[in-house]
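Retro notes (design track)

What went well: tokenization of the new backbones is finally stable.
What didn't: we kept losing track of which sequence belonged to which structure.
Fix going forward: every design gets posted as structure first, then sequence, in one message. First example under the new rule, 355 residues:
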């Protein structure tokens, strides 16, 4: 590409919040490929708002239904073309009836929904009838249902704007704790709605993802350190690792040996090493799991107690309730996520799904 259009530069700036000249340079470097330009800016630590890269012009609603006894729940995304229709009473009624149908049958895929009966007809025919009445294309984009087993509950939360919904299930041992644990799980759902964890824990990451994120994170920290240095402030540590999945037994043992050598040099009595090292290992893990703290539910610091991770809060609650609470499933839907930004006409996106 010989020339980079102002429109393309503007689009990249909106996606990344990077400087105008940085955006132009990135596009020149990657010959006008928008997605490669986003990655280029991330790797250079210039993307101030990677989260903006997936802004999507999508309307509709996320709906959640949870059984009163917390034995089952469903999470649904239904898309419309415009926000105006999403607020229409006819659309709201469609959402309510669809949610009830999905919940009653514990549906986990849209294809299965199409064959179910609603208002005396199968769902596909019902949806076409509603589209005709409402006057806009509507798509049930995705659904998920969770049915629990013994000593397990599921709870959920949908944000007041209907654009984010979460389901979390958890196992425990004492049935008397059901109500308390259900309330706690709902708080975790609210945390997840706000903080956007992508996966439950580090096991949800693959090797390629970690390597890619490491390059971007280190570049980001180095860029921040340039500003901190200019201001005469303490620089941030550049981590060797970024996720718990990288901290193998060998890595942790090597760090323990390193800490022992340091304590020996400091002439600390060997009898107190066992009291010092665990805390230092805990700090080492915290410093080298930054991606887990950003993107995993268990690794994030709890919004209601920001000194502790969700994993630590779970451990504390288990002790408080004399129980063993463990999260078994985590699902989060945000309206429109995953639809490519390049689909500028969302009506066309919806129509394509209808075929």
């Amino acid at each position: 590409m010989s020339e980079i259009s102002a429109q393309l530069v503007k689009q990249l700036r909106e996606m990344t919040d990077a400087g105008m000249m940085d955006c132009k340079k990135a596009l020149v470097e990657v010959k006008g490929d928008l997605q490669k330009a986003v990655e280029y800016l991330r790797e250079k630590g210039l993307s101030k708002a990677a989260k903006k890269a997936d802004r999507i012009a999508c309307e509709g609603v996320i709906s959640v239904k949870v059984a009163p006894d917390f034995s089952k729940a469903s999470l649904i995304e239904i898309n419309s073309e415009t926000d105006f229709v999403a607020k229409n009473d006819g659309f709201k009624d469609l959402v309510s009836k669809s949610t009830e149908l999905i919940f009653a049958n514990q549906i986990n895929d849209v294809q299965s929904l199409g064959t179910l009966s609603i208002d005396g007809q199968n769902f596909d025919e019902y949806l076409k009838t509603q589209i005709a009445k409402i006057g806009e294309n509507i798509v049930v984009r995705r659904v998920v249902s969770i049915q629990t087993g013994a000593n397990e509950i599921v709870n959920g939360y949908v944000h007041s704007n209907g654009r984010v919904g979460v389901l979390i299930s958890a196992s425990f041992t004492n049935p008397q704790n059901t109500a308390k644990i259900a309330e706690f799980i709902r708080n975790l759902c609210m945390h997840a709605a706000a903080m956007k964890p992508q996966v439950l824990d580090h096991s949800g990451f693959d090797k390629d993802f970690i390597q890619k994120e490491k390059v971007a994170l280190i570049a980001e920290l180095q860029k921040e350190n340039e500003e901190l240095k200019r201001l005469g402030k303490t620089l941030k540590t550049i981590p060797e690792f970024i996720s718990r999945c990288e901290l193998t037994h060998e890595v942790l043992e090597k760090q323990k040996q390193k800490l022992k050598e340091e304590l020996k040099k400091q002439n600390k009595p060997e009898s107190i090493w066992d009291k010092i090292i665990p805390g230092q290992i805990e700090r080492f893990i915290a410093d080298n799991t930054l991606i887990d703290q950003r993107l995993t539910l268990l690794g994030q610091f709890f919004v209601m107690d920001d000194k502790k991770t969700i994993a630590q809060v779970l451990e504390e609650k288990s002790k408080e309730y004399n129980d063993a609470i463990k999260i078994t499933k985590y699902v989060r839907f945000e309206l429109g996520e995953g639809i490519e930004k390049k689909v500028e006409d969302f009506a066309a996106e919806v129509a394509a799904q209808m075929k």
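Added context from the reviewer: The two ends are 35 Å apart (CA to CA).
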